[in-house]
Amino acid sequence: NEAFERLWHIPREVAERGDNAMLDHIVGQLDDPTSFVALVEQLYQSPNFSEDELTFKDGRVFNRRSVALEVGGGGYSRIWIFSDVTEAWSARIDALTGLLNRRAYASELPEFMASTEHGRVKSFALVDVDQFKSYNDSYGHAAGDSVLERIGEILRRACDSNAASAYRIGGEEFAVTCVSDSDD
Q1: Which residues contact 14 (CB under 8 A, 6 or more apart)?
Q2: N or C: the chain end with fewer CB closer than 10 Å?
Q3: Which of 25-39, 65-79, 97-111 has the lowest average pLDDT?
Q4: Residue 66: which of 55, 53, 82, 54 has the closest Cα?
């Protein structure tokens, strides 16, 4: 339908070519098309509810949920629900550093601290840049912003796995959470 085409940015001429053309178009927009297709194929064999996020090359973020309906013969049909959460997700990102912001930190830290994962190690670090006010006063706010951007870049690169997250929680204050196997 038209709402689906708008949500997924499917041009009319692609929609007119049918489901396979639309699926190819959709997959081509995603950051990780291989994982998208693999999970869809896995879920059609599973009775489980699923929920995850899809990220797009153009920066959009969708929440994807699905519920299984048994069709017999060991297979399942699914109801898929997609919601564009780009604006809500953007509200969780610090504009200067690109890291998760204090709102995300306040939302995610209690769950991180309460979780128990046997055989896994949780790590938490607070990073406070010493003498930052003096640096800002001496070299100006633009130079200070450059330092914060660079710190954000370093932390993002260091946390480039699903098990680690970095947050800017204040002016020059950062937090990092990580879950790893005990032998890492």
Answers
A1: 21, 22, 25
A2: N
A3: 65-79
A4: 82
Sequence-separated (6 or more) residues with CB below 8 Å from residue 52: 39, 63, 64
Please state the φ and ψ torsions of residue 19, each to the nearest 5 degrees: -60, -45
Residue with tokens 């550093």: 97
More confident residue, 28 or 115: 28
Q: Is 30 helix (H, G, I), strand (E, B) or coil?
A: strand
Residues in the chain: 184
Sign of CA dihedral 171, 128, 98, 66: negative
Phi, psi (5° rounding) for residue 161? -140, 165
Q: Rg (Cα) of the chain, in Å, rounded?
A: 21
Q: Residue 44 corresponds to which amino acid? A: Y
pLDDT in tens, 117-134: 777 888 999 999 999 999
Query: And the tokens for 109?
Result: 């830290």
Q: What is the pTM of this model?
A: 0.56
